[in-house]
Amino acid sequence: MTFAIIFPQIDPVLIAFGPIAIRWYSLAYIAGLVLGWRYLRFLAARSAAAIKDADIDDYLVWATMGVIFGGRLGYVLFYQFGYFFDNMLQIFAVWRGGMSFHGGFLGGVILSLIFCRQRKIPPLIFGDLVACVAPIGLFFGRLANFINGELFGRVSDAPWAIVFPRGGPFPRHPSQLYEAALEGLVLFLLLALVWCMPNLRQRAGLLTGVFVTGYATSRTIVEFFRQPDEHLGFLTLGATMGQWLTLPMFLVGLFLIVRAKPKKMELQGQKRDKTG
CA 16: distance to chain centroid? Predict the structure, then answer.
């Protein structure tokens, strides 16, 4: 007889006031953004580039827009284009889940580049700071996936396998927790370790490359335990959509690591008054 853990009965809605509901899913995104904002302030104050607190505060809005709109658009285009093409209004029902990390990543990168250009902030240096912060959001996002009982793993006889309400009668890998651990905790600690080494921290783009390759590696590993989307299944060479979308990220990350050069500590031409 196979032992299995029954999925805990967690109401996706934390509290409701009539038609207004506060959901764990939304709180996870808020927690990731707020904690990331504070940590980004901490890192920016110790960065070679003089980045004002006001810039970080404003960037929180940009990051939120990039993650939400990019993540939703990525999910619509990469995972369920046919469904959303026939049900356009459902695109806006983000509270029901359905966000793509790859779409959110692209949205965040595009808006970050525009933000840096407007504020005259070196993009690679700023990108290194954001890279150190990103695993915080990934950690809370994967916990939200677990609470929602979505994106669960493949059928397993592991003693920690869980029977998910939407996963049928068979116990499955809690792949959301695997991702929270690898993409969140492990990657956060790795980046913090690299940040603490001045000779590595001074190489513009290195931390960004470590984050991108670290995420790609973590996601590729977890995809071997995660149940592929039912309407997509396994694709070419038996890989999943998540693995194929992650491959370009891994290559870009390697490129950034190889080309990373020491930052010019003076940055006189780009230095700005923190108190201004």
Answer: 27
Residue 218: C-alpha distances to residues 49, 59, 156 (Å): 30, 27, 20
CB atoms within 10 A of CB 10: 12
The pLDDT value recorded for residue 18 is: 67
**Secondary structure (3-state) at 169:** coil
CA 145 from centre of chain: 12
Strand partners, 108: none
Q: Of the candidates 145, 159, 157, 172, which has an alpha carbon nearest to the alpha carbon of residue 227? A: 172
Q: Residue 91 is encoded by which pair of tokens?
A: 């695109």
Inter-residue contact 211 to 187 (CB < 8 Å): yes
Q: Which two tokens stand for residue 71?
A: 């993540």
Instruction: State the pairing for strand pair 20-23/13-17.
Output: antiparallel
Distance, CA of 240 to CA of 121 (rounded, Å): 37
Instruction: Assess contact for 168 and 200: CB atoms under 8 A.
Output: no
Name the nearest CA neighbour of 173 among 182, 189, 162, 165.
Answer: 162
d(CA 9, CA 11): 6
pTM over cut 0.85 = no
- CB count within 10 Å of CB 125 equals 22
For residue 270, what are the CA distances in angstroms to 74, 110, 122, 131?
34, 21, 8, 21
Two structure tokens written together for 15: 């509290």
To which H or E segment does residue 86 belong?
Answer: helix 81-86
The 10s digit of each residue's pLDDT in 53-85 is 899 999 988 888 888 888 787 777 767 766 666
